[in-house]
Amino acid sequence: MKLYSSKLAPSPLKVLIFLAEKKVEDIEIINLNLGELEHKKPEYLAIAPNSRVPALELDDGSIILETTAICRYLESLYPEPNMFGKSPMEIASVEMWYSRVTYELVSPLAHGFRHTHPHMSKMENQNHEFGLAQREIGVKALNTFDEIIASRKFVAGNNFSYADIQMAVNLNFLVRLNRLDIKDFKNLNEYVTQIFERPSFSV
Amino acid sequence: MKLYSSKLAPSPLKVLIFLAEKKVEDIEIINLNLGELEHKKPEYLAIAPNSRVPALELDDGSIILETTAICRYLESLYPEPNMFGKSPMEIASVEMWYSRVTYELVSPLAHGFRHTHPHMSKMENQNHEFGLAQREIGVKALNTFDEIIASRKFVAGNNFSYADIQMAVNLNFLVRLNRLDIKDFKNLNEYVTQIFERPSFSV
């Protein structure tokens, strides 16, 4: 299998962490240079028509797009340690927290960054007012999740899961890109620090 | 189990269709009147702190929030007919198409509706310019998915899946709420018509 990845973007990083947690080392990693728009070239568009990384190419030539789809495929092949839960309640909990983290926390912070940051002006049809409103919602969500995480080590239950990869990777990127300081959210700061101490996060 | 639902919103409808496909009939349905803001009352906030429907209350009092999490829990309990795939490739395909439908198609159309429709003016901090830009992206996505669906009966492969529930339910709501006509997208129109002929869609 070949993983089309990038050293800059958070999405492929999530797959690399996922692979490292499972100690899978026999997948070929092909790094695209997004700065030089390698993901927009015809060779890559033939693989990923939506021009996004990551993409997973199987040995029979099939392509899997979308980070979570790639990770679920890898979970089927390498089930241990499980990252999407085992019991019905664990499975529901990982999905629930993945969704809540994504829609309540990551989405407004991502919009806040994409619509206000000068670095994104060429890549996004920026709407500054919308970006500022989303950033404000993101700050509220940071406070909410700071409370949620106060009483737990992992976001979705007793074990490290895919929801933690989603939460820690995105907080690490998006908080500073919104010109915020994670240290202003004590429990989230402790959480992200602790998650990033995992060997898988140094990929 | 009790399902907190609503007769107006697309998200609880997805769970009701999911249950009907599996012929599960022993879950108590509690309909909230969103127009009268029943989902904002303290009784419901104690169940769903994010004030959203659906929510699933288990017999032991545990709560599962988020539509997809509820459906994955129900899939564990009632695995047949499966809606999230069985083989590694099916599982990946349902997740991939669920994600592509959600991010490429549903998200811009939902933003287009929420930020431009007069009915949403009290519920959303509307940004008309952003809404119009998103609607335009949504129209492009409708054309893209009109091509994608031309050669297939179901969006994620050979079988009806959760990705079809996501796609058909949202198209049925969001196309007209963006003041568009699904009939202008011939293949999508045939697809939605065919999916809505399933008995589960008349819940």
Give a written overview of the molecule.
Two copies of one chain form a homodimer. Chain A has 203 residues and is an alpha+beta fold. Chain A has two domains: 2-77, Glutaredoxin; 88-202, Up-down Bundle (Glutathione S-transferase Yfyf (Class Pi), Chain A, domain 2), CATH 1.20.1050.10. The first copy, chain A, has helices at residues 10-21, 42-45, 67-77, 88-116, 128-150, 162-177, 186-196, and strands at residues 2-5, 28-31, 55-57, 63-65. A four-stranded mixed β-sheet of chain A has the order 2-1-3-4, with helices on one face. In chain A, strand 1 (2-5), helix 1 and strand 2 form a beta-alpha-beta unit. The longest helix of chain A is centred in the middle third of the chain and has 29 residues, at 88-116. The radius of gyration of chain A is 17 Å and the shape is globular. The model of chain A has no long low-confidence stretch (mean pLDDT 96). At the A-B interface, helix 3, helix 4 and helix 5 of A face helix 3, helix 4 and helix 5 of B.
